[in-house]
What we know:
The protein is an alpha+beta fold and 129 residues long. The protein has helices at residues 4-22, 25-30, 54-67, and strands at 32-39, 50-52, 72-81, 84-94, 100-112, 115-123.
Amino acid sequence: MTTPxxxxxxxxxxxFNDAWNRHDIExxxxxxxxxxxxxxxxxxxMMGRTFEGREAVRAAFQSxxxxxxxxxxxxxxxxxSGNRGVSxxxxxxxxxxxxxxxxxMVDVFTLRDGKIEVKNAFRKDRPAF
Length: 129
Protein backbone atom coordinates (compact mmCIF):
# COMPACT_ATOMS: atom_id res chain seq x y z
CA MET A 1 0.00 0.00 0.00
CA THR A 2 1.33 3.44 -0.94
CA THR A 3 1.10 6.05 1.82
CA PRO A 4 0.18 9.69 1.08
CA UNK A 5 3.80 10.73 1.77
CA UNK A 6 5.13 8.03 -0.56
CA UNK A 7 2.71 9.18 -3.26
CA UNK A 8 3.91 12.78 -2.86
CA UNK A 9 7.55 11.65 -2.91
CA UNK A 10 6.97 9.56 -6.05
CA UNK A 11 5.42 12.65 -7.67
CA UNK A 12 8.51 14.64 -6.58
CA UNK A 13 10.76 12.13 -8.38
CA UNK A 14 8.57 12.26 -11.51
CA UNK A 15 8.65 16.07 -11.44
CA PHE A 16 12.44 15.98 -11.02
CA ASN A 17 12.78 13.60 -14.01
CA ASP A 18 10.56 15.85 -16.14
CA ALA A 19 12.68 18.89 -15.23
CA TRP A 20 15.82 17.07 -16.42
CA ASN A 21 14.17 16.44 -19.78
CA ARG A 22 13.11 20.08 -20.11
CA HIS A 23 16.66 21.16 -19.16
CA ASP A 24 15.03 23.36 -16.51
CA ILE A 25 17.59 24.15 -13.81
CA GLU A 26 15.15 26.23 -11.72
CA UNK A 27 12.64 23.36 -11.57
CA UNK A 28 15.44 20.91 -10.66
CA UNK A 29 16.73 23.09 -7.86
CA UNK A 30 13.18 23.62 -6.55
CA UNK A 31 13.18 19.86 -5.84
CA UNK A 32 16.41 20.01 -3.80
CA UNK A 33 16.97 20.92 -0.14
CA UNK A 34 19.23 23.84 0.78
CA UNK A 35 21.89 21.38 2.00
CA UNK A 36 21.70 19.11 -1.07
CA UNK A 37 24.42 16.71 -2.20
CA UNK A 38 24.98 15.16 -5.64
CA UNK A 39 27.20 12.12 -6.26
CA UNK A 40 27.89 12.05 -10.02
CA UNK A 41 28.21 8.87 -12.12
CA UNK A 42 31.93 9.44 -12.67
CA UNK A 43 34.84 11.01 -10.87
CA UNK A 44 38.00 10.32 -8.91
CA UNK A 45 36.40 9.21 -5.65
CA MET A 46 34.59 6.11 -4.41
CA MET A 47 31.29 7.98 -4.87
CA GLY A 48 32.27 9.38 -8.29
CA ARG A 49 32.52 13.13 -7.79
CA THR A 50 30.61 14.74 -4.95
CA PHE A 51 29.05 18.20 -5.14
CA GLU A 52 27.77 19.75 -1.90
CA GLY A 53 25.49 22.74 -1.49
CA ARG A 54 23.03 24.41 -3.86
CA GLU A 55 25.54 26.32 -6.00
CA ALA A 56 27.86 23.33 -6.53
CA VAL A 57 24.93 21.01 -7.29
CA ARG A 58 23.40 23.58 -9.67
CA ALA A 59 26.69 23.88 -11.59
CA ALA A 60 27.07 20.10 -11.78
CA PHE A 61 23.51 19.63 -13.05
CA GLN A 62 24.00 22.32 -15.70
CA SER A 63 27.23 20.65 -16.86
CA UNK A 64 25.22 17.56 -17.87
CA UNK A 65 23.45 19.66 -20.53
CA UNK A 66 26.73 21.32 -21.55
CA UNK A 67 28.35 17.90 -22.09
CA UNK A 68 25.22 16.44 -23.73
CA UNK A 69 23.12 19.27 -25.23
CA UNK A 70 20.42 16.79 -26.34
CA UNK A 71 20.40 14.81 -23.07
CA UNK A 72 17.24 12.94 -22.15
CA UNK A 73 16.15 10.57 -19.40
CA UNK A 74 13.25 8.44 -20.63
CA UNK A 75 11.21 5.43 -19.51
CA UNK A 76 11.31 6.75 -15.94
CA UNK A 77 10.11 4.47 -13.16
CA UNK A 78 10.08 5.68 -9.56
CA UNK A 79 9.50 4.16 -6.14
CA UNK A 80 9.89 5.25 -2.53
CA SER A 81 10.42 3.39 0.74
CA GLY A 82 10.62 5.52 3.84
CA ASN A 83 13.00 8.42 3.21
CA ARG A 84 14.69 6.69 0.26
CA GLY A 85 13.63 6.83 -3.38
CA VAL A 86 14.82 5.29 -6.63
CA SER A 87 14.37 6.42 -10.22
CA UNK A 88 15.34 4.15 -13.10
CA UNK A 89 15.55 5.56 -16.63
CA UNK A 90 17.35 5.39 -19.95
CA UNK A 91 19.92 8.14 -20.49
CA UNK A 92 20.54 9.26 -24.07
CA UNK A 93 22.85 12.03 -25.23
CA UNK A 94 25.32 13.13 -27.87
CA UNK A 95 28.77 14.44 -26.97
CA UNK A 96 30.46 17.31 -28.83
CA UNK A 97 32.55 14.79 -30.82
CA UNK A 98 29.34 13.22 -32.18
CA UNK A 99 29.48 10.00 -30.16
CA UNK A 100 26.25 8.92 -28.51
CA UNK A 101 25.64 7.43 -25.12
CA UNK A 102 22.58 5.30 -24.43
CA UNK A 103 22.43 3.33 -21.19
CA UNK A 104 20.09 2.43 -18.35
CA MET A 105 20.71 4.29 -15.14
CA VAL A 106 19.48 4.56 -11.58
CA ASP A 107 19.36 7.46 -9.17
CA VAL A 108 19.14 6.64 -5.47
CA PHE A 109 17.74 9.52 -3.43
CA THR A 110 17.60 10.48 0.21
CA LEU A 111 14.46 12.55 0.82
CA ARG A 112 13.78 15.12 3.53
CA ASP A 113 10.73 17.29 4.11
CA GLY A 114 9.31 16.72 0.63
CA LYS A 115 12.55 17.48 -1.20
CA ILE A 116 15.68 15.69 -2.39
CA GLU A 117 18.60 15.86 0.06
CA VAL A 118 20.97 13.49 -1.80
CA LYS A 119 21.04 12.37 -5.45
CA ASN A 120 23.39 9.42 -6.01
CA ALA A 121 23.62 8.57 -9.73
CA PHE A 122 24.64 5.23 -11.27
CA ARG A 123 24.82 4.47 -15.02
CA LYS A 124 25.77 1.37 -16.98
CA ASP A 125 29.29 1.75 -18.37
CA ARG A 126 28.34 1.16 -21.98
CA PRO A 127 30.78 2.36 -24.68
CA ALA A 128 29.74 5.38 -26.73
CA PHE A 129 28.70 4.69 -30.32
